[in-house]
Amino acid sequence: MVFPRTTKAWDFFCEATREGLDKCEINISSDDPTVLNLPWELLYTPDYQFLAPSVAGMYRSLSGYAVRAPMEQLSQDKLNILLVISRPYGEKDVALKTIARPLLEALKPIKKHVSLKVLRPPSFEEFERELNTHKGFYHIVHFDGHGNFDKNSVGFQYSYGSKGQGVLVFENTNGSPQIITAAQIAQSLNDCRVPIFVLNACKSAQEGEGSFSSVATRLVSLGAKGVVAMSYNVQVQAAKHFIERFYQQLVLGTDISTAVASARRQVLNQRLRPSPKGDLPLADWMVPVLYQQETYRPFSQPSTTSDTLDIDDFLEEANSKLVGFPEQGRYGFIGRDYDILRLERAFRQNNIVLLQGMGGVGKTELTAGFAQWLEETQGREHLFFISFESGASLSRVVNEVGRAVWGDKFSQYSAEQQQKAVLNYLKQKPCLLIWDNFEPVAGFPEGNEPLLNADERDDWFFRN
């Protein structure tokens, strides 16, 4: 027993819980990695069963570190999230949108109060560039990828006589693994004033021999207000349930500890996990852990009035960045995550990507799904879909883009002015143009009249 009934600790526990566990928080404060690494979430009493799902909050803190000076208040207009999705192992990796999809679904009801951007490419260099460009902007960095503990690493903590530290796996520009230490990440993020870090990575809370060794403790020691990490390998389904409830609670204005506690209860209540033998109950609610030095509330609850309609709710379609796309099916675009990942990587290397295949294999659906993904994650300024199936000309392409950007006044200008304006816009703004059934432009199938002759094609594609 940890707290025998005859000790003062047990008496203190009984007094603290007299008004109910939901009024209590449990803080494990220590600088000893052995203590921090114990599965405190499994504290159990005969009367209350497991404590962690019932208390108002449970978290770890570093006893040797004072609470840092208050961080300057971030914008309360939106909850700003930078999502880093690292999939360096391709087809063998977790599906690209495993975490992003439930996260986007969870944010839908409060979409106008949240700004979510996916880091492209998910390299550490781009990570530093994005945060330095927007210092003091992001409330949360969410890393969705792989983490581990490198016991042979010698970083900052080596001067304290210990070895090993947590690492996260980013991607190089070509998609290969890029191993980054906790010290590198912590220093960069602290400099850019990001208060909360969600590490949806395996073993991101595992401790080494020193309190600086893991990703979570290193970040907290440098001033992070809260770090949510995984103490063991986590099932994909459990991660989905956890992050869904966690973000829903944050946007309602709760503090980090309360949000984690609510998310943990959600995982406990949804305990069935897929297996080769069918769905089996799994007690993985104790895997996510929270590190914090003080209570922190990143976002104020959006003010709403039940008797007032917000016109923004009706303008969602008008504000869409998708232009000319075919209507989605009833259930939207599902699956093909590896194909989406391949397209993401292809556009890192080239401005023009050719998608080819037999008729009916789903090329159009894939490109439309890819565009939807980019639109949801701030991947492009505008996304245009133009079908050449029934014939289309260069002037139509220019007109589709121009009218979407500048409205009806675009038609007042000459063809030469329109073309120049569209070209300048596409050079300055990151956009995606999808040209569906493009083969008729070159006269395919053989024997058909090309929509553009050879000189026109060369002039348009190579000069511009």
TrEMBL record:
Residues 25-273 form the CHAT domain. It holds the Pfam family CHAT. InterPro entries: CHAT_dom, P-loop_NTPase. It comes from Dulcicalothrix desertica PCC 7102. It comes from the Bacteria. This is CHAT domain-containing protein.
